[in-house]
Amino acid sequence: MVAPLMGAVLSPEAQIEAATYREMVLGDLSGAIEQYKAVLEKPKSRAIAARALLQMGQCFEKSGRRPEAQAVYTRLISAFPDQTEFAGQARVHLAAWSETLPIPPQLNFALGGPGNVPPGWFMPVLPKDSGCPAGLSCTVVLVPAGAPMRMTGDWDQNFTAAAYRGKNIRLHARVRVEAGEAQLWISVDRPKGAGDRVADRAVGAGDAVVTSVSTHVDDDATLLNFGVSSAGRGRVWVDDVSLEILPR
Asked: Are strands 198-199 and 181-189 parallel, antiparallel or unpaired?
């Protein structure tokens, strides 16, 4: 392996190799993570994107940042199931954590800061002016400014379903909508594929509303997915997120 040329315009394949060099030879895990993220911005193929996710997850894992690693691995499994080599390796990592990571990470948004997606979550755009109440942590969902009006914004995460199999669960969150509407949702993946979303009623613009949605987790469930979808140009503030197991 050789060091990349400074200032050179690199192909996606070369970008991956440069990031791997930074990870394996220089030991700069934070720098490698940023390079893998750059590859994912405009991937030329699904194989390249899947490989970048796998290696980014490994960097998070080596850094002791398991919630971020878990989120990346589960994203790889759900978004690139056709990339069996990379998705299979991600499953191996998650299977080893089934007992040590039984709950979703970052429900209180304690990690991260303005202008950054909270670790453990996926979000297309985050404004730097979040507008969270003083002293509280929250996250913000919005539709990108250049998107067609029918497009929605999504804030979500997924994680292993091992601890919830055979149980009924309920997701709570407090949601405030600036304009348009938003919906809390949850879905369960099984070996045969992704499940349908179960959504609560839409929340319209106005004061903060506590909303919840419930579902059953199948005995063979692989992943739980949940989040908030927004429609319209306004921001959506989300806080007080919790996931509970319901009595039988």
From this structure: antiparallel
Q: Does any domain span residue 45?
A: yes
- Residue 30 is part of which domain span? 12-96
pTM: 0.55
> Is the pLDDT reported for residue 188 higher than 70?
yes
Using CA atoms, how far apart are residues 49 and 45, in angstroms rounded to an integer?
6
Length of the chain: 248
H or E, element range at 91: helix 84-96
| Cα distance between the two ends of the chain | 56
Residue matched to tokens 């590859």: 39
151 shares a domain with 76: no
Q: Cβ of 134: how many Cβ atoms within 10 Å?
A: 4
Token match 């080599």: residue?
A: 85
Question: What value does the mean pLDDT take over residues 60-72?
Answer: 82
Higher pLDDT, 124 or 199: 199
Number of domains in the chain: 2
Stretch (H or E) spanning 32: helix 29-41
Kindly state the average pLDDT of the residues 130-137.
57
